[in-house]
Amino acid sequence: MSVVLLGYHNMGCRALKVLMDLGIEVPAVFTHKDSKKENIWFQSLAMQAQQNNIPVFFPEDINQKRWIELLQEISPKVILSCYFRQMVKDEILSIPKIAAVNLHGSLLPKYRGRCPVNWQLIHGEKVSGVTLHHMVRKADAGDIIGQESVRVEPRDTAYTLFQKLEDAAERLLKRFMPLLLEGKAPRIPQDHSQATYFGGRRPEDGKIDWSLDARSIYNLIRAVTWPYPGAFSFLDGKQLFIWDGLVHLDKNLGISPGVLEIYNGRVLIQTGKGVLELLSASFTNEEPPPKDNAIPKELYQNGIKLG
What we know:
Elements: E1 3-7, H1 9-21, E2 29-30, H2 45-51, E3 56-57, H3 65-74, E4 78-82, H4 90-93, E5 99-104, E6 112-113, H5 116-122, E7 127-134, E8 144-151, H6 158-181, E9 197-198, H7 214-224, E10 231-235, E11 238-248, E12 260-263, E13 266-270, E14 275-282
Parallel strand pairs: 1-2, 1-4, 2-3, 4-5, 6-9
Antiparallel strand pairs: 5-7, 7-8, 10-11, 11-14, 12-13, 13-14
Helix pairs in contact: 1-6, 5-7
C-alpha cells in the first residue's frame, strides 16, 4: 500500500511521520521550496523526507504534464495532501487507485480556503479542528472521512492553535489512514449550505481599526502575532507592531478610539468599545517580539493617537 504525500509546513511533517509509523510506503514527496519573503518558523518536509531516503520533488505547478506522468508511473493507492499550496486538478485526482484526500485545518464545511487557523481566531471561534476529506475540483468541498476537534482557549494565538491542530492531525491520520487503505473509511457528504470560505491574507491586512471593539482587535492581534507578520498601527508615521494585549470590555477612558492613556504604568488604548491594555509592542517585525510589558518608551505618555 503506497501513499504519495503532497505537503508542506509542520502538517506535512506530521503526516509523513504518521505514514512511516504505520509502515505505509511513501514512494515520493511533493513539496515547496521555502520563500525568502516568508518567515520560515516551521519544519522542513523536504529535509525530513530526504533523511528517510524518500525522493522529493519541488513542482512549480504539479498539474504540468511531467508531474502527471510521474504520478501515473508511481501509481499510488492514495494521494494525501497536507498544507500543499497548489490546487490539484482532475487529471491528478483520478490517478490514485483508492482516493485523493486532503487534510484541512478547520471543521469543514466552515472555513474553507486559505489561512483557516488565522481566520478562526479573527472570528473568535471557541472550537477548532482538522478535517480529512476527499479532494474534488472545488477547494475543501469533498466528502468528509473524519474530523478531530480542539478547544480554542482565550489566550491562544495562531502559533499555539496550530500546535494543537498538529497533534489533532496526527491522531486523525493514525485513525483513518489504515481504514482508507482498506476501503473501510467513512464518506460523509458536506452540507454545502453551511459552508464558509475565506481567502489568503497579506501582511497589510493586519492594520488595526481602533473603532472596532477591544475583543475584535485582540482577536486580530493573536491571529497574526509572531511568527506571523503582526497586527500594526502607526505612531507619527512609524509602523508600530502590537504583539499582545488584554481586553477590558467594561472600561471606557472617555477619549477617542486609538488614543492612549497611562494608568499606574499601564498603557491603555481606547477602542470603539472597551479598552485594550498593551502588553508587548515594537517598531519591527523582523525579529521575535519583546516579552510581556516590553513597550517602546515613546508610548508612555497620555494623549498619543495611534492610527
